[in-house]
Amino acid sequence: MVKLRLKRCGRKQRAIYRIVAIDVRSRREGRDLRKVGFYDPIKNQTYLNVPVILYFLEKGAQPTGTVCDILRKAELFQERTSIRVN
Q: Which GO terms describe its cellular component (predicted)?
């Protein structure tokens, strides 16, 4: 099963998170299938590769809670109402 979740990057006390499609059994810093965006909580910036995210969601990938909140803020779920979210 594939999940869309955050992967921590950046330096100490200055975290930046990549949004990645990754196998459920992999650890947080493990090898990802594809990078689909990033999130900077300090500057409150988000970059999303929307076509790739929609592709993974249509194939059955489940976003984690935090990623789901980020996608909702970006109004991604209003574009596609057929996608089921936890």
A: chloroplast; mitochondrion; small ribosomal subunit
**Cβ neighbours of residue 75 closer than 8 Å, sequence gap 6 or more:** none
For the whole model, what pTM was predicted?
A: 0.81
CA–CA separation, 44 vs 79, rounded Å? 22
3.40.50.300, 3.30.1320.10, 3.50.50.60, 1.20.1530.20: CATH of 1-72: 3.30.1320.10
83 pLDDT band, cuts 50/70/90, is: low
